[in-house]
Amino acid sequence: MAACGDADQQARENLTESTAELQEATANARALLPPEPTPVSLSDEDAGRVCRAAIASLNGRDPAIIRVISTNAGIHRVRYRRDDGTVWTNECRVGNGTAEWRAVMDGQPGRWRNEDTIRFTVDGSTINIQTFMGGEPVTNDTYEVN
Question: Which of 34, 46, 72, 84 has the smallest C-beta neighbourhood within 10 Å, fewest atoms?
Fold first, then answer.
């Protein structure tokens, strides 16, 4: 009978070790994920500023050259002209600390690029944009956007 007790004790110890390993693995996995957004309430004007900053960050542009050209049902359409003269149009949905974007070509919106995770914070005119692709950080840009 003592062997049975030893086996039960060993099983409990193995379970305790496995639980601790699982908790550690979960904590390590969470550390790799993008930070959770902080809930924010934005005016349409502020959401447009966030869209300008997000598109600037994604495309390596200055948000000062990007203009909001329309807002409809929470979707902000922005446009900018590159140095080579080409005009680029994008749309954003902004809310709850995250933004989504899509390109617009010949007036037709493309698909939402939801493989990109865009997180933002707004502090007055300062907007920080963090972009993650496949869970990996890609950008962390801060702009003054008026």
Answer: 84
